[in-house]
Each structure stands twice: as structure tokens, then as C-alpha cells.
Amino acid sequence: MKFRTINVENKAYKGKVKPFIGAKQLLLVCGFAQSEAGLVLEEGADASLLAYTKGKLEAALVAG
Which secondary-structure segment (H or E) carries 40? Predict the structure, then answer.
């Protein structure tokens, strides 16, 4: 459950995710939903889509 909720008021989110254009939209497309608690991973989220997206982001970071 810890990794299914992202507190958008958190210092880490504000420093590492929010500055990137489209980051929140990407999370929403990958299965997160906006809630009072922040961003919450929906029950039926596609785990393969999350893994694929994570791989692409990691590859882009390495490529610089």
C-alpha cells in the first residue's frame, strides 16, 4: 500500500516529479487517480504498462 499512494504535497514529489512537464499526466495515464490523499494507484491498474513505462523512463535517463 505504501507505494500505491503518492502525497503530492510531499517535498520529494515537489522536487523530483512536479518540475517535469507531463509527469503528473503520465502517472494518471499509467493508472493513478487523483484523490484527497494525493495520487492513488487504481485497483485495476495494468502492471505491465507500469513496468514498461518505468523501463522507458530509466532508459531515457541513462541516454541523457
Answer: strand 38-41
Is 90 exceeded by the pLDDT of residue 64? no
Q: What is the phi-psi region of residue 23: left when phi exceeds 0, alpha when psi lies from -120 to 50, beta otherwise? A: alpha
Q: How would residue 56 be classed by pLDDT, with cut points 50, 70 and 90?
A: very high
Q: Count the domains in the chain.
A: 1
Instruction: Note the helical H segments in 1-64.
Output: 11-16, 23-29, 47-63
